[in-house]
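Moderator note: this is an archived Q&A kept for reference. The question asked for a predicted structure of one protein chain; the sequence and the answer are reproduced below.
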Amino acid sequence: MSNHLLENWVLLVVNAIRLIPYLSIRRAVKMYNVPKTTIIDRIKGYTVKSDSYNARSNLTKIEKEVIV
């Protein structure tokens, strides 16, 4: 499974945990076969490394003006 598909699957599981009152993290991890630590990180609001890296690589307005 590609990283993009895995992340979509993880977000689906996190939403299921939030919406279904009786669905625990442990049960969801077993049902959907996803990493427990990843689910816990997403619930806490941590972002994917690739997303945080892309945000850091964005140029500021001044940097863009210097390049042009």
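Archived answer notes: The radius of gyration is 17 Å.
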